[in-house]
Amino acid sequence: MKIKNVSRLAAGVCVLFVAGGIAAAQKPVKPIIFAVLSDGTSAEPIAYVNKGKLEAAVGGDASPNVISAFDKAYYKPGTVYKLIFGGANVGTVTAKSSDPKAECSKNMGTVTTKSSKVTLKGLVMGLATSAPIKSTTGSFRRKPTDAEKAEMDALAKAEYAKQKLTPKLLHYQNLTAIDVDNDGKPEFVASYWIEIDKLTRGLLFFIAQRGSNGKYSIGYREYRTIDQSGLMSGASLKDIDEGTLHELLLDSYDYDGDGTGEIFTYKQSFEGAGFTVYKRNGSKWAKAFEGSNYHCGF
User: Fold this and answer.
1) How buried is residue 239: exposed, middle or buried, by Cβ count under 10 Å (0-12/13-18/19+)?
2) What's this model's pTM, rounded to 2 decimal places?
3) What percent of the chain has pLDDT over 70?
4) DSSP letter string, 229-291
5) Looking at 181-185, 206-210, 262-266, which range is the least confident one?
């Protein structure tokens, strides 16, 4: 699809149409949600929030003028966004700079993250937004207790057993207790992996919650195998073991205002990043949004 640039000077509005849908850099700018990465020093756009719905933001493969307009609108130095961690506003994310001509981060921004409650580091990431945040003073995000971890390990082993696998050792990238509905009871977001053999890994992502019987069950699961032979040239299983291609928790955020936070995840690939948002329906979770952002060729 060809990119169209339609300008209405009288209204002062510039609407930019790109492949895959509408990606707008307008005034007033749309409320937006970012992933906060790299120990809290970079922001990557996930989606706009429009009347309780998510819309794909400008991607790194958009035309130069679209990316330039986006960067000017959202990464103006000094622009402040709310930091979300545990579903609550716990600090600020302030834009420092951006470079629409950067080789691998055209639509990403350099930021400063400040919070007295949390430090983002490694695979402990967060969200930033310009959209409203409902009060969630009772919400939390933390490591599981030993007892909780044992329960999650048991669920993971049962899932691997369904694949006819008996793991000798369970590894995990993220295993997080997070309260999505402010009821004081944790849900769990887990990213496990096992070494099936020297050339194959089994990756398991799931969301679990406690039922009325007091026991935890899995409300969403996804299992994948990754083999060395299927990786891009130059990539190795070491990259996988360190987190690449794993689906990882960003945080929860109640963007539609229904009282239950949606779970946002991040998947780093070799040429970009993928984002998924899950919404709860009773004891189950389903995908409410999927997006991706191209960085550069591997």
Assistant:
1) middle
2) 0.89
3) 89
4) GGSPTT--HHHHHTTTT-EEEEEEE-TT-SSSPEEEEEEE-SSEEEEEEEEEETTEEEEEEEE
5) 181-185
